[in-house]
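Recap from last week: sequence in, structure out.
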Amino acid sequence: RRGMDIFKAVPSRSSGSFRGNCTGGPQPRDIVVTFQQAGQPEEFQIPSDEYCTFTSDIPVLLLQFSTGTAVDNVTDADPFMVIVPPIEQYQSSYQLPTFLSQSTPGTNFLNI
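Predicted structure tokens:
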């Protein structure tokens, strides 16, 4: 991946803050968002080679939108949207079903 991922943070309440601490790029950086209205999403972009830890003082729904091949100019890069769960909802193990198709063989990728 070479491009950006788009993130949307949707606050459950007004007057809250959201912070991202990002590393892995040329230099560490912080993302700071101040929410004004409940349900009003704030959008920001993060380069695909950066890794971020997010915190908030109010409950927030965090969505990640990954751009696809047309944006990244790489093969095997389908666009997707995923809800980023809070660490309190993490599990100790996961099962990820995939399918094998003779007509469309391919490689499966996992976004961690």
